[in-house]
Amino acid sequence: MELLKPKAPPPKKRPSLLVRFLAFLTTLALIAGAVFLVAHRDVWNLDSLWRAIRYLGVERSGTGQAESFPYEGGSSSAFAALDGGLLVCSTSTIRLYAGSGDVVLEKTVSLEHPVVDANGTAAAVYDAGGRDLCVISGGQEVFSLELEEEESFLSARLNANGYLAVTAQTSGYKGVVTVYDPQFQPVLRINLSSRFITDAAVSPDGSAVALVSLGLSNSTFDTHLELYRLSRSEEEVDPDLTCSLGNDVVLDLDWKSDGIWLLGESALAVYDGGGELLGRYDYGGQYLKSYSLDGDGYAALLLGKYRAGSDATLLTVDSAGQAEASLPFSEQVLSLSAQGNYVAVLTAGSLQLYSQELNPYRTLETTQGARRVLQRADGSTLLVSADTAHLYVPN
Questions:
Q1: If residue 18 lies in a helix (H) or strand (E), which one and from where to where?
Q2: Greatest pairwise CA separation for the chain in angstroms
Q3: N or C end: fewer C-beta atoms under 10 angstroms in the chain?
C-alpha cells in the first residue's frame, strides 16, 4: 500500500502593504522618541512623568507654583522637606506642614539652637548645645531623648534605614557617641577621654559607625576619621580603623552608598568603609560659600575667591574627587540645595534648576521673596520666605 505523503503547509501570506507601512511608522516613531529623550534627557525624563502623576491633584499656576501657605517660626528656623511637606523647627515649636499648608504635627519645645537632620521619611530634631532631641516620622513623634544636667548634644544623624548616631558632651569624657537601631534601641556607645568627638554617622547597611575626632598628635592639632563595627563586644574599645585627616576642620559628614563624605574648610574628601581615600577635591584657597552633600553620587559646592561679594563658581564633585561640571555666578546666591540628580540655586531674581552636569533644567522667574530652597529628588522644590512657603513643581 502506498504511503500517504504529508501535505505541504500552505505558503505564508505576507502582511499587506498597509500593515507593513504602519509597522514601519511605529518603528520610526519609537526611534525618533528614543533619540528625542536622549537629546533632551536633562529636560524630559521619568521624573517628569512621576511628577505629573504624583501632583495631579495639586492646584498650580502655569509656571508650576502651588498656592503659598503661611508658616510660624520665622526664617531663622531650621527646615527640612519631610513626607511631601515642610518641617519647621523654631525655638518654641516643631510643626510639620502638608503641601497644602495644613498642620500635620505641632509640638511645643524649648530649643535655643534648633537643628534638623532628615532622611526623607524621618527627621531628627535636636538642640545644638542643649539637652533635648526628638525624631519625627509618619506625621508623629516616634522617639525622644533628654540628656542629664551638664550634658549637651553636638550632632544627631539619621541614615536612610533609620539608624541614629547621637554625639554628645558628657561629664568625664571629651566625647560620646551612642548608636540607636531603627527601633531606637541603643546598640553601641563609644566613650573617648583623649580626643573630642564632633560628629558621627552610621553606614547605610547599619554595620558600622564613622566618627570625626579632634586632638593632638605629636604636639600638633589634627583630625581623625575613626571607624567602629556595631557588632563589637564590650571589651573592644579601640577603633577598627583610624585615618588622619591632617589639620583640616570637618564641617559636615555623610556616609552614603559610595563612601564617607567629609566636607572640610579647605577640601572635600571621600573614604570607603575600609578607610581608603577614594578621592579629594582641594578648594585651591577659595572660600566655601555654600554646599550640599545630598546629591546622588556627587556634592554641590559654591566656591568664591573672596569671602564677601557675589562672584562665585558652582561645582559638582563626584566621589573620586573630580569636578564633573562648573558654572560661574555673578549674582548673589541666597540658597543652594541638591537632591537626587537636581541642583537648585536661589538668587534674588530667580530659581535655577540644573542637572548633576549643571545643564539648565528649569527656571522660575517669580520666587515670591523666597530666601531658602529645599530641593527634592523628584525635581520638585520647596521655596521658603520669611513667613510663607510654597511648592514648585516643574511642568
A1: helix 17-39
A2: 111
A3: N
Element (H, E) at 105: strand 103-108
Helix (H) or strand (E) holding 104: strand 103-108
3-state secondary structure 213-249: EEEEECCEEEEEEEEEECCCCCCCCCCCEEEECCCCC
DSSP 3-state of 22: helix
- pLDDT of 131-178, one tens digit each? 999 999 999 999 999 999 999 999 999 999 999 999 999 989 999 999
Domains present along the chain, CATH in parentheses:
287-395 (2.130.10.10)
Q: pTM (2 decimals)? A: 0.86
Q: What would the grid cell of residue 222 be?
A: 589634627
- Cα 239 to Cα 109, 126, 202, 275: the distances in Å are 36, 27, 14, 12
What are the tens digits of pLDDT across the range 15-31? 666 666 666 666 655 55
Residue-level length of the chain:
395
Q: Rounded to whole angstroms, how far apart are CA atoms 132 and 126?
A: 6
CA atoms within 13 A on the CB side of 115: 17
Q: 52's torsion region: left (phi>0), alpha (psi -120 to 50) or beta?
A: alpha
Task: List the grid coordinates of 190.
Answer: 563609644
Q: Which long-range contacts (CB under 8 A, 24 or more apart) does 50-56 make?
A: 50/378, 51/378, 51/379, 51/380, 51/393, 51/394, 54/378, 55/380, 55/393
Task: Retrieve residue 65's grid coordinates.
Answer: 507654583
First to last CA, the chain: 79
Distance CA 77, CA 90 (A): 5
The secondary structure of 26-88 as a DSSP string is HHHHHHHHHHHHHHTTTTSSHHHHHHHHHTTTS-B-TTSBBPPEE-SS-TTSEEEEETTEEEE
Cell of 236: 573592644
Contact 319, 278 (CB under 8 A): yes
Distance CA 372, CA 386 (A): 9
